[in-house]
User: What shape does this take?
Amino acid sequence: MIPLDTLLIFIPAALALNLTPGNDMLFCLGQGMKSGPRAGMAASLGIATGGFIYTLAAGIGLASLLVAHPGAFEAIRWGGVFYLVWLAIQAFRRPVVLTAPQGARGSAWKAGRDAVVVSLLNPKIAVFVLAFLPQFVDPARGSTFLQFLLLGTVFNVGGTLVNLAVGGFAGSIGRWLAASRRAARAFQMLTGFVFLGLAARIAFDRR
Assistant: This one.
């Protein structure tokens, strides 16, 4: 359906974008630092889930609808800002917990769930899907929906592998936190500032 020469152009471009630090990568980094490797990797899978949802939406025209109606775009953008600020406040106020093996699964589940919400409330993903993927979609080659799905899958798989590495590496820092409650609190505060930085980036980024 998609020629090999088109994929040979798309894959390196998608990989370059995946390796560029952005909101999703920083969120996985923050979750890994806060809750450990499983949480960081779960966040990457949550981000991928949001990316697939946007890809499906683009395939049926929702991304075009968002661009055509600035009010809907702005609602999503500011929803993402307020959600990230709320996560930052939670990080600042949460009591310091050094190690909690029994709570690891819950932390990973929560990180993945929050990552889906953050991904869906990031309008840059919708704009990216609308601006980047269509350049490689040709109606003459058949179903545009299936082409969007294939290209989105390639992009999301690459992004997931990158974010898995970022989240897993950041999570290893948690092994050092048991030695110092002060260090644990410092990393917890840093996580809050990461979330605030993401909120500011979304709030002030231009379309």
